[in-house]
Amino acid sequence: MASNGSEASAPRQPTETEVVNPATGLVVARVPAAGPAETDAAIDRAARAQPGWAGLAPADRARLLRRFAAEVDAHSEELAELEVRNSGHPIGNARWEAGNVRDVLDYYAGAPERLTGRQIPVAGGLDVTFHEPLGVVGVIVPWNFPMPIAGWGFAPALAAGNTVVLKPAELTPLTAIRLGELARQAGLPDGVLTVVPGPGAVVGQRFVDHPAVRKICFTGSTEVGKRIMAGCADQVKRVTLELGGKSANIVFADADLERAATTAPSAVFDNAGQDCCARSRILVERSVHDRFLALLEPAVRAVRVEDPALESAEMGPLISAGQRDRVAGYVTGAEVACTGRAPEGPGFWYAPTVLLADSPADRHWREEIFGPVVSVLPFDDEADAIRLANDTAYGLSGSIWTRDVGRAIRVSRAVEAGNLSVNSHSSVRYSTPFGGMKQSGLGRELGPDALHAFTDVKNVFIATDG
Ligand code: NAP
Ligand code: MG
């Protein structure tokens, strides 16, 4: 920035964020943190770039997104290794995450040429609708899945003709910064996708306050999400929220108990439980409760918690010492059914832990822990299971285990959650909609309809009389 010669102001100290490897506790990078001026400059650049980006021929926008996908693919191993160092994700998971960004870009690269409106029969003329881009979209990303969540925001937003400013979490900015570079390398014009690392209260808040940002796509805590929604109200700014969860894994007595028990650990301990879809409440029909626990225990002990760079790693450390303390706070004083193993020494390790709930009032049963801790509670019958599953402010995902097809359908319809799976724990596919009911969120990401959340419908009537 040009300095004013008449003022003898001291040069501004650049602020930096230290990025820590959670598996070792060591600093692995220093990243400049944007302040309000840098954030405004990024938003201004995005606003200037937007008409040109939206004005590209649809096939050309599609081609650039495919090239971006190809760059991500060509650098997927580098991105995965970066995520292992920055986020402590097991290398296998991190490879999947980089591949997910590529796939989401490829999927939405098909959209510019298919973003059709309607022709609606009216008297006296022709009526057509257009899906117009909103302008600049602000994507705010949490630390738990830095790559996929960034891609779920920027890919459909860009495909629909918006430009994007993206704020990674302070703890995990490295892969987002690299994705921004790969976008430029692929030929996306300057200002089309700008990564702006910095504190949420500064950069994220500026996205909310700046009038040129027309939509916020936020993933993170319910607490911050509510504040963002309130802030967006002032400008009637569009907002998509993906927030917390406390999802139920409901196991009926007629289920394949062995499969239900052996898959339950991965459904909650994947990403060390730092997953908004984690099935962190296991409801088991009372008649099979003890047998289920007996089958669960060896599966929990078998989870390989180790250096995430090892090919065999199934679970890495928690993201920070603070997160580990938060998680430990839920276990203190609770009844522990069994635990797995975790490495000793440096890094923010926590062993997979199974807690027995006394009642649905228990704090560990009610609150999102965001760590490798799962609570188990028996239920009496189908109605009781549904009541307990819905006794939460959240409604993101869940699983239902039963061999009774009618029951599977009844319970799926009755559980208030956006993403359910029967006899499996699958939750997020880029080709299907994802999002929460109740306080787990607002709007849906991914799938065929996500484009509509990044556009406004415009209706045009053209008179044919006279
Ligand atoms: P958070 O504060 O909600 O952070 C999520 C994102 O929002 C980060 O990029 C953060 O930036 C940014 N942010 C923070 N304050 C903001 C503000 N005032 N305006 C705009 N953006 C803001 O989540 P957290 O503190 O990292 O995690 C706390 C808990 O939230 C977790 O333990 C977990 O329960 C839940 N959580 C849920 C998800 C999910 O996927 N649904 C993800 C993460 C966390 P900074 O990183 O710079 O603060
Ligand atoms: Mg926070």
How would you describe this structure to a colleague?
The protein folds into two domains: 28-243 and 441-460, Aldehyde Dehydrogenase, Chain A, domain 1; 248-429, Aldehyde Dehydrogenase, Chain A, domain 2, CATH 3.40.309.10. 38% of the residues lie in helices and 20% in strands. It contains 14 helices and 18 strands. Strand 8, helix 8 and strand 9 form a beta-alpha-beta unit. The structure holds NADP nicotinamide-adenine-dinucleotide phosphate and magnesium ion. Residues 140-144, 167, 169-170, 199-201, 204-205, 208, 219-221, 224, 227-228, 242-244, 276, 368, 370 line the site of NADP nicotinamide-adenine-dinucleotide phosphate (NAP). NADP nicotinamide-adenine-dinucleotide phosphate is lined by residues 140-144, 167, 169-170, 199-201, 204-205, 208, 219-221, 224, 227-228, 242-244, 276, 368, 370.
In short:
This protein has 466 residues and is an alpha/beta fold. The protein has helices at residues 36-55, 58-74, 76-87, 91-109, 146-159, 174-185, 200-209, 222-233, 257-269, 289-301, 321-331, 363-366, 382-390, 405-414; strands at 16-20, 27-32, 119-120, 125-133, 136-140, 163-167, 193-195, 213-219, 238-242, 248-251, 281-285, 335-339, 353-356, 373-379, 397-401, 419-422, 441-442, 455-463.
The small-molecule ligands in this entry are: NADP nicotinamide-adenine-dinucleotide phosphate, magnesium ion
Mean pLDDT: 96
Please report the first level of CATH classification, the CATH class of the largest domain. Answer: Alpha Beta
Order the strands across the largest sheet as they lie in space.
12-13-14-11-10-15-16
User: Quick one: CATH superfamily of the largest domain?
Assistant: Aldehyde Dehydrogenase, Chain A, domain 1
Q: What is the CATH architecture descriptor of the largest domain?
A: 3-Layer(aba) Sandwich
How many domain modules? 2
Unreliable segments (pLDDT under 50, ≥5 consecutive)? 1-11
Based on helices, strands and strand pairing, what is the structural class?
A: alpha/beta
Measured by DSSP, the beta-strand proportion falls in 15-25%
* Spatial gap, N to C terminus: 58 Å
